[in-house]
Amino acid sequence: MPEILGHNFIAGQRSALGPQRLHSLDATSGEALPYSFVQATEGEIDRAARAAADAFSAFRQLPPARRAEFLEAIAAELDELDDHFVAIVCRETALPAARIQGERGRTSSQMRLFAQVLRRGDYLGARIDLALPERQPLPRVDIRQMRIGVGPVAVFGASNFPLAFSTAGGDTAAALAAGCPVVFKAHSGHMATADLVACAILRAADRTGMPKGVFNMVFGGGVGEWLVKHPAIQAVGFTGSLTGGDALCRMAAERPQPIPVFAEMSSINPVIVLPGALAKRGEAIARELAGSVCLGAGQFCTNPGMVIGLQSPGFSQLLGELGRHLDQQAGQTLLNAGGLRSYVGGLEHLQAHAGIQHLAGQPQQGDQARAQLFKADARLLAEADPLLQEEVFGPATVAVEVADEAQLRAALLGLRGQLTATLIGEPEDLEAFAWLVPLLEEKVGRILVNGYPTGVEVCDAMVHGGPYPATSDARGTSVGTLAIDRFLRPVCYQNYPQALLPEALRDGNPLGVRRLVNGQWSDQAI
C-alpha cells in the first residue's frame, strides 16, 4: 500500500504548495490520526481544472472499449486494497469492517457495470435519418446524432459512503464513463481513505495509458467555490446537505457560462403503512422499520424519516412497538463530530415544536447517537410545515397519523420532493389505495412496495433521484447506469462524409451498437 502523502493530485503528479495542513480524525475518539493533508491553493485548483480540460479531448475520443478497460482497471485496484486500508476507513468513519468490505465490492462492481455500458454502446444514443434526395417538396439531407461528454466534471463526495459515493463512487464512475475527466474534492471526513483510493485510480490510469489529468483530486475546506466557478469545469456532481447543494447551484448559475449541478441533497423517504398489512403483520413491520431506521446509525440518504398511517388502534400499537424497539437500541457512533452536532440540533428542533411530541428514545447524551421516535400533527404535513420537510440525518423518524384518506392525500400533497416513498400493504391494500401511486410518482424518484428504502441496488433500472429538494434536477439519477446521462450532450452531424463521422454513426457500424435508423432500432450495418 502506498504512503499516505496528503498532497493534492494534479495531472498525475502530487502537489503541496499551500502552507495550511489539515488532519484526519479518528471518528470514535476524535483524536488526530498520523496523517496530514495540504490545503489546495487557488493556483492548484486552477491547475487541476486545466489538467482535466487538457485531458478531455484525448480522453473522450478514445474508443469506448478503452475507457471500459480503464474502469475495469480501477475496479481491480479497488479490490486489491487490503485489510490495512479497511482499518483506516473504519478509523476515519467509525463504520464496521464488514460494511466497508461490502462497500468496496459495491464500488468496484459499479465501475465494472459502467464498463459494460461502454461496451454495449446504447449510452451513445445513436440516431440516423438517411438522406431523402427525392422527397417532395424539399429533399432531406443525411442527419445523424450521438452523445458526447460535456467536459471536465467537479465531483463532491459524501461522508456516509466513503467508497461508493466518494472518490471512486458513482459520480466519478459515470463521468469517466461519459468521457469526462474528473476533479474530485476530497471529503474532510475521510481524507486518508480518499488519498489511498485516488492512488488506486492513478495506478489504473497509468496501467491503461489514460491521458494525464483524467483524474485529479484536491484537499481543503472552502476550495469548492474556486472549483465550481472555474471556466474549465462543465458540470458538477454533489452528494451532501441541502445547504451545500443549494450554494453550489447558485455559484454555477451565476457563472458567465452557467453549468448544471447534479446535487443529491435532502429526503425524508416516507413509509406509508396500509391497514391490511398493519392488521396482519404489524409486529413484524415495527421490527423491520426499527432496523431500517437504525441501519448504519441512520446515516443513509434513504433512511425512513417518516412513518404515515391511518388513525386506528393498530397504528397506535405499531408506534408503541416501534418505540420499544428504538428504546432498546444501543447508542451508535456517527461519522464525525459535526454529524452528531447536526443530529442533536435536529432533535432539539423537533422537541421544541408545539405540534410534535416525543414518543420514544433514550435521552441524547455523550458522543453517541440514540434512536428517537416522534409524532407530528398531520395538519403540519398538509400545511407543508418546514420542520417536517427537513431531513434529520441519523437514527430518528417521525410518525404522522392521518384521520382518513382525504387527510392522507392532503398530507402527501404537502410533501416536497423525495428520493423514495414506500407502501407497506397486502394485495387488497394496494388495490384499494391504488390512487396513491400517481400522486407519489409526482413526488419521488423510487416507489417501493413491501420493502425498505435503505438498500439502493446498483443496476440499469435504479433511480436514485427525485424532485427538489431530494435533488437539484429530477431528470437524473446518481445510482445506476442512467447516471451517465447527466454528463452527456447530443451533437448532430448533418451531411457529413462517411470518413469524418464518429464510428458509432458510420454506415458500417464498426462498434456494433444499437441505433435508431429511420425510426427503426437496428444493430446492423446500413
TrEMBL record:
Checking PANTHER family in the record gives: ALDEHYDE DEHYDROGENASE-RELATED, SUCCINATE-SEMIALDEHYDE DEHYDROGENASE, MITOCHONDRIAL
Q: Does the keyword Ribosomal protein apply?
A: no
Q: Which reaction does it catalyse?
A: 2,5-dioxopentanoate + NAD(+) + H2O = 2-oxoglutarate + NADH + 2 H(+); 2,5-dioxopentanoate + NADP(+) + H2O = 2-oxoglutarate + NADPH + 2 H(+)
Query: What's the family?
Result: Belongs to the aldehyde dehydrogenase family.
Q: Which UniProt keywords apply?
A: Oxidoreductase
A GO MF annotation of the entry reads: 2,5-dioxovalerate dehydrogenase (NADP+) activity
Q: What is its EC number?
A: 1.2.1.26
The organism that produces this protein has a lineage beginning with: Bacteria, Pseudomonadati, Pseudomonadota, Gammaproteobacteria, Pseudomonadales
* Entry-linked Gene3D superfamilies: Aldehyde Dehydrogenase, Chain A, domain 1
What is the superkingdom listed in this entry's lineage? Bacteria
Stretches assigned to the Aldehyde dehydrogenase domain: 36-454
Q: Which residues form a coiled coil?
A: none
Q: What is this protein called?
A: 2,5-dioxovalerate dehydrogenase
